[in-house]
Amino acid sequence: MKTALGKIGFALFAAACMAGPLQAQEYPSKPVNILLGYSPGGSGDTIARFVAEELSKALGQPFVVQNRPGAAGIIAAEAVARSAPDGYTLLSGSSTELSANVSVYKQLPYDPRKDFEPIIQYSIQPNVLMIKAKDARLPISSVRELVDYAKANPGKVSYGSAGNGSTQHLAMEALSMRAGVELLHVPYKGGANAIADLLGGQIDVNFSPLPEIIGHIKSGRLKALAVSSSQRSALLPDVPTMNEAGVAGYEFVGWHGLVAPAGTPKAVVDKLNAAIQKALQNDLGRRLTEAGLTVTGGTPEQARQRLNDSIKLYGELVKASGMPLM
Q1: pLDDT for 192-249, tens place per residue?
Q2: Which residue, 210, 227, 244, sits at the end of a domain?
Q3: 263 and 118 share one domain
Q4: Using CB atoms within 10 A as the burial measure, which of 38, 112, 127, 243 is most buried?
Q5: Are residues 160 and 307 both part of a single domain?
Q6: What is the CATH number of the domain that holds 289?
């Protein structure tokens, strides 16, 4: 009897040990949805579609991007956090919904540190401070002139963002704090919407991710005043950093990465990580670099550490800026 029970116990133990590898071998056996908290056309949308395309090729099943814009990415993030932890619903997230929102909102319907399994961070990106080219309403052509004009006209210079607490919003809050100016924030459901209104003259200035606006800058429709990173961009070598433009000590970059619901099997997380890591070393990395991004990559453990570090950094910025909580 004891021998029989012992054999049964061993069999169950062996089956449990095999579950992870078998799950990884079988995954994915059907299409995978990648949710995105922003409208089509923005940098997050572009990156998510690059990643989905590479995963589809590498893993043999369709990876489909679904846009669920609104509330600074919260709608999509909450949906993924509440999804089954089986690897078939993922979030292509950013530093907004996965880091900044923790400090920006009084009550967040998810906890990025507890409700997600970080898979990989794809890249970091600089924002570009810009104005509409040849805008007669705003007599400025440099960061210094923008600061001087804003000081002389407090609360009258408007800027857009992808939503409250988005990286664009916090980037401008950092500028306001360091330069001592008061600007008018106009939140949108996505960065592409803010750019459209900048081009249309509905807002005055914008801090937007480089991939979203490089075409408008090259065409002459928008004028770049500075980049938010500590070094100049290879795509805009003549555009100064904010520090070079006169805002001492300024640096602010966003990031994008892939996460799954908490409890997703490690074997599945590792399989996704390996596929993206390989792609980042080849076509995906090239495409992201050409778009003006800095490729990162790394392990799921590194992605989790970067997430925690980012939450701390944004929390310190929100607290220092005195931004009211949503």
Answers
A1: 889 999 999 999 999 988 888 889 999 999 999 999 988 888 889 999 999 999 999 8
A2: 227
A3: yes
A4: 38
A5: no
A6: 3.40.190.150
Q: Please state the pTM of the whole predicted model.
A: 0.77
Alpha helices in the chain (DSSP H): 2-26, 43-59, 74-81, 95, 101-104, 143-152, 167-179, 191-200, 210-219, 266-280, 283-290, 300-321
Q: How many Å apart are CA 318 and CA 322, to the nearest integer?
A: 6
CB atoms within 10 A of CB 290: 12
**Six-digit token pair at 309?**
């570090």
Question: What three-state secondary structure class fits 227?
Answer: strand
Are β-strands 89-94 and 32-36 bridged in parallel, bridged antiparallel, or unpaired? parallel
User: Which band of pLDDT confidence, cut at 50, 70 and 90, is reported for residue 2?
Assistant: very low
In the chain, what are the helix, strand and coil shares in percent, each to the nearest 5?
Answer: 45, 20, 35
Residue 300: domain span: 24-122+255-321
Residue carrying structure tokens 């990106």: 125
Q: How many domains does the chain have?
A: 2
| Token code pair at residue 10 | 């061993």
Residues 170 and 107 in one domain: no
